[in-house]
Amino acid sequence: MANAHTVSRISFSSERDLLNSKLSDYPSAIIFFIRSLPVNDRKSVPCSLLTVYILLHVDAFGEFMVPDEVISKVKAALKIVYDPEIPVNVVDLGLIRDMRMEDNSLVIKMVMTAPGCPYETYIAEMVRDAVRAAVPELKDVRVEMEQFPPWTPYEMTEEGRKEFKEKAGYDIMDAFIQRWGSKENYYDMVKKYLGID
Hints:
mainly alpha, three-stranded mixed sheet, 9 helices, 3 strands, 44% helix, globular
């Protein structure tokens, strides 16, 4: 069996190299060593940055999860989740603001297209269901809703704007500018609505 000394001799030139690495980059002895540890001990073993990274991403069942690969799967899965009122998926609509891994759980920061949107709970549940189906190894999926800054069409992808125009018959950005004049004007209105100084 490999030991902490064996693991500590494995290193990458930088943390960026480490985060971009794949499971196939790691000697099988390292993975065997990590999986042989009790779950509660996996984060306290004195070893290299590489091993710490592995410890944080091996769950109780020995599944190794690479953040970049998880995020990629999640984005693809969310392409089939659509806003009930705007005919564009939540990714191209720009509702997904951030995704990060935390101990084999995924935290998603989202925003609705309007403050007080009545579909907030419904969309959040659709997002959770899509993520769980795409990456069942995740321990948990948390969706955190942001109220400010509010969503605007500026957050849409080019594909999203094109899809909206094809389905709705007008450019959503042009309509937004005609109504509000600027993003800042809209922000000021939302601040008053939310009671933000």
